[in-house]
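Study both lines:
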Amino acid sequence: MVRYYSIVALLTGACTGACAQDVLLIPDSNSDRVWAFSAADGSLIDDAFIADPGTVNGINVFDRPIEVLIAGDGSLLVTDQFADVVSRFNPDGSFVDVFSLGGVRDTNIMNNIRGGHVLTGGDGAGDVLVTNSGAFNDLAVSQNNVKRLDPVDGTEKKDFAFNRYGGIRGPFDVIEYNGEVLVADEGQDKIVRYTLDGKFNERFTSSFVVPQLDFPQQMAIAGNGNLLVCSFSNGVILEFDSNANLVGQYDPGTLDLYRGIAELENGNLLVSTTTGVFEVTRTGIVVETQAQGTGFRYMTRWTPTVVMNRQASTDHEPLAMPDPDPRPREQIIADELGLARHAGDGEDSK
């Protein structure tokens, strides 16, 4: 039997505050809400921790939510690929406001955004980074870059990373790693290194070195300090050491098209694909199907700071392995890029 706990159940008892159990927050772009899973074993905690805020000031806040970011003040920020904004939520999941660009949606600045990161090091500690495809039209002022937002009001600062000097052509995720910043770039199938100040510092790895790297999506740091990378189009999880040497390649064979990744406290991996959320081992075994659906995205580890008023649910039978995504593979990849959705903004398809 698979046990589903509520966050309130996890936080009420002898252990509270700093020793509360960490959770993994995963947006589901189909249901337009954020789910919570146990960071210990991947079990489902809450399938609607953050609900769809609806339309605010003419902005459809959740149109394709991608990743939850933990702001320096403890609030939760959610990037949204089709809404083209980053929205802010209280630690209890309640909506606060549209955070990015001072609450304004401007698709000539941020358009078809993906994952992000809140800097913890360097002079820009606290700044919010957002990977941005950009609108390809005459009015657009930025494409294929990493936007930098003020941590207080979300106003635009000087871009963190630019599409130049052999830099990025299709950024999808950004992460701090060993005192640097890495950007996963699907446009050139590589992971690019930057200093904490945003200066280009050559590549970390690429498909020229590791052919298995094809359309990298979320990156995560494993307990051993290695870097885990979702290779979406190749349908594998890659593990690199700090010197960018490939030290592991994982795939149970029954899964494909990996988007999100996190290492669980039990040593297994929690992954999201176009068919659901799964606990898998590095030896290629699917331990558990934790959720089914085509819209699950990136994973964010978070320690709840408040007790949410949610009721513990009952036991459920284990979920069966879901059917493959019925869309043709080429369509899935095109949909993932999100370019067709923004055709009205003048973007070209890949």
Notes: The helical segments are 7-11, 329-337. The chain has one domain: 7-342. The domain at 7-342 is CATH 2.120.10.30 (Neuraminidase). DSSP finds two helices and 26 strands in the chain.
